[in-house]
Design a protein that fits this description.
Blueprint lengths: L1 E3 L5 E3 L7 H17 L13 E2 L10 E5 L5 E3 L2 E3 L4 H8 L7 E6 L5 H13 L4 E4 L2 E2 L8
Parallel strand pairs: 3-9, 4-7, 7-8
Antiparallel strand pairs: 1-2, 4-5, 5-6
Length: 142
């Protein structure tokens, strides 16, 4: 489509949109989301032990985490170990059917792990699942 200006010059309208900047921005955002997605799983860095049998958790659950410094977190919020039984009781009225997922760093001493398990048991919760990572399998020798 041509336009005539007052000076008598003919100008054409731009019919094409330059999408190169849009593609650049979308690719940068894609890279950012790909890098941050694993971090969104949990904000607390814990190296859980590796086992051969692992079942993935797909729904939101109550997760207790104890890191290598023996700090305890309930769903990414720091809690005092002495207050934990009362907090767990207050979360759910039916503690007999409540499931707790426990993440413990592999460097946590067994005594600290046992103390955390005792606090969960004091809350009346007996269904505890321990979160692990899949172990790397080595191919069988032929």
């Amino acid at each position: 489509m041509a336009f005539t200006s007052r000076a008598g010059h003919t100008q054409t309208a731009l019919a094409e949109i330059n999408i190169t900047p849009l593609v650049d921005v979308v690719l940068v955002l894609l890279v950012i989301f790909m890098l941050t997605a694993p971090v969104l799983q949990s904000g607390i860095q814990v190296n859980v032990p590796k086992t051969k049998t692992v079942r993935e958790i797909t729904e939101q659950r109550t997760v207790l985490t104890i890191d290598k410094d023996q700090q305890v977190f309930l769903n990414d919020h720091p809690v005092n170990l002495n207050d934990l039984p009362n907090i767990l009781r207050a979360q759910n009225t039916d503690t007999t059917h409540q499931i707790i997922y426990l993440r413990a760093d592999e460097k946590v001493p067994f005594g600290a792990f046992a103390t955390l398990m005792d606090a969960v048991k004091q809350a009346g919760i007996t269904n505890v699942s321990i979160i692990t990572q899949p172990a790397e399998t080595t191919p069988a020798a032929k």
